[in-house]
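User: Reviewer 2 asked us to show a designed sequence for the structure in our supplementary figure. I'm pasting the structure tokens here. Could you produce the per-position amino acids so we can include them in the response letter?
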């Protein structure tokens, strides 16, 4: 990591996003990077005992991951420096019985996952990816990731001639208007989505996959690659910047951080729908791992009181066309550094103690810093920060890089903010 530069950090981020259309793919790619860096894989089903000093990672549901450095020093005395992010993003997910044919067009029924901006999903070249569960030739249950990669579907808009008021008042009915078109059928055809998935499994994983597909979690995604945009490449335009940007930058900072300190990165699934799952921040994943590392409750409680968690999740940058949607004193600017997010109603976990710690970190790293507070007359979103702080009692603050078009099929962030965030998190881990 000594050769890491702002340019190859951003190139790595773009490649990571393109290769991670689902939380499953994001975790698989993070696993590969950790293994390449010498981290050892742990399994929750195994007995860990007292782990030797070293670098480890563990996953849950293939969609959440915790990676950590365990030092020689007793963690009850030192505590962990932790960074948290989430692997999921709003999208369209395929229903269990999705097949419909209307006027010869085969469409797939979808559910809207999370608080997605729906208008930008129209007229995009879409593909499909996710996890498939099936039986193999020996009737053994297996789970594999698939990714169609190529444009495989589209949601066409209705022509303006048939909806003259569309630019003044467009309303989207998710049940009626969002099913993507995947192909045109001949009379008598009976499309079978599971058969299509089996064909894709064979293509990606070999002909040993001869049993039937039992179930799946498949989502649609935009095939347009992530890119640096602007005359001076000031911006990063990509899908899933919220929150794969924080996952990737957090991972790079962990890999570049000191191996002599107790440091940890946790990236969990289902944040966009409330984190209530076995692999979400409201589940037991992080508390369970920390308790096993501490070995006993007394050591666990002492360790937590010595620890600090940075919840890294994108912030709302002040949009030049909608500047009135911000508090004028708290409107973060893209490429002006990470943002401390505060809310008196505890929608963010930041308090004066934790924000002061991060301000000190950024001063040491020579990183500019900004503040965000939502307008007093508007509702505030939330993150894994308050959830984690309340569930394990760890001191926490919420930060993120400023972003435009959050929850759109394509979001925008500053190309210099990635390096600022990386520098700050690396300083925190050191």
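Assistant: Here is a per-position design you can include in the supplement:
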């Amino acid at each position: 990591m000594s050769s890491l530069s702002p340019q190859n950090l951003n190139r790595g981020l773009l490649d990571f996003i393109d290769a991670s259309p689902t939380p499953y793919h994001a975790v698989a790619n993070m696993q590969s990077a950790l293994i390449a860096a010498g981290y050892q894989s742990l399994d929750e089903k195994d007995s860990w005992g007292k782990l030797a000093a070293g670098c480890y990672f563990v996953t849950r549901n293939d969609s959440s991951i915790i990676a950590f450095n365990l030092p020689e020093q007793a963690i009850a005395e030192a505590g962990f420096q932790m960074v948290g992010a989430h692997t999921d993003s709003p999208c369209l997910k395929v229903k269990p019985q999705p097949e419909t044919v209307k006027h010869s067009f085969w469409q797939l029924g979808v559910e809207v996952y999370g608080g997605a901006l729906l208008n930008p999903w129209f007229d995009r070249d879409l593909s499909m990816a996710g996890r498939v569960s099936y039986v193999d030739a020996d009737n053994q249950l297996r789970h594999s990731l698939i990714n169609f990669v190529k444009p495989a579907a589209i949601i066409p808009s209705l022509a303006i001639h048939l909806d003259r008021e569309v630019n003044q008042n467009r309303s989207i009915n998710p049940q009626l208007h969002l099913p993507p078109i995947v192909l045109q059928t001949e009379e008598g055809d009976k499309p079978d989505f599971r058969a299509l998935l089996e064909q894709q499994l064979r293509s990606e994983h070999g002909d040993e996959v001869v049993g039937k597909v039992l179930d799946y979690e498949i989502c649609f995604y935009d095939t347009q690659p992530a890119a640096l945009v602007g005359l001076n490449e000031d911006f990063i335009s990509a899908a899933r910047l919220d929150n794969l940007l924080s996952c990737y930058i957090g991972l790079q900072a962990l890999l570049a951080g000191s191996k002599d300190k107790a440091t940890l990165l946790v990236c969990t699934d289902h944040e966009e729908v409330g984190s209530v799952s076995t692999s979400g921040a409201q589940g037991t994943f992080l508390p369970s791992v920390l308790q096993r590392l501490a070995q006993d409750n007394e050591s666990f409680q002492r360790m937590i009181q010595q620890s600090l968690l940075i919840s890294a999740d994108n912030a709302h940058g002040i949009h030049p066309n909608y500047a009135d949607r911000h508090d004028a004193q708290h409107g973060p600017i893209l490429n002006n550094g990470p943002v401390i997010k505060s809310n008196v109603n505890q929608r963010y976990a930041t308090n004066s103690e934790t924000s002061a710690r991060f301000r000190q970190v950024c001063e040491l790293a020579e990183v500019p810093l900004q503040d965000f507070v939502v307008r007093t007359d508007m509702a505030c979103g939330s993150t894994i920060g308050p959830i984690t702080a309340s569930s394990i009692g760890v001191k926490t603050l919420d930060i993120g890089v400023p972003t435009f078009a959050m929850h759109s099929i394509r979001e925008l962030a500053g190309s210099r903010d990635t390096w600022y965030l990386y520098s700050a998190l690396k300083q925190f881990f050191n």
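For the response letter, you might also mention the following. The chain has two domains: 6-89+239-429, 91-222. Residues 91-222 form a domain with the Aminopeptidase i, Domain 2 fold (CATH 2.30.250.10).
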